[in-house]
Amino acid sequence: MTSSDDAKDNLKPTKIWKCKNAECKAWVRDEFAAATEQQCPICKGPMHRSMRHLPPVQKKAKSQPRKPKSLF
Asked: What one-character-per-residue DSSP string does 6-71 give?
């Protein structure tokens, strides 16, 4: 098994918004979309829902609050 096979195995079906304009290649993951009716960020045209096989987004761990520096 090669590294490209490993990458393909890691892909998950993901909901996206895709630009309806054939010349525009813009798309955005549904989880990062702001509203239910999308406007393309590139050409300002309408967008529609679609699916793509993408790697999952890695969620950042919440950072621990820093302890205040000692004055001594």
From this structure: HHHHT-EEEEEEEES-TT---EEEGGG-SSSS-B-TTT--BEEEEEEEEPPPPPPPPPPPPPPPP-
Tokens representing 13?
Answer: 């079906």
What is the model's pTM?
Answer: 0.66
CB 3 within 8 A of CB 45: no
Shortest CA distance to 48 belongs to which of 57, 56, 61, 39? Answer: 39
The Cα 32–Cα 41 span in angstroms is: 13
Which pLDDT tens digit goes with each residue over 16-69? Answer: 999 999 999 999 999 888 777 788 989 999 999 999 999 998 876 666 667 677
How many CA atoms within 13 Å lie on the side-chain side of 45? Answer: 14
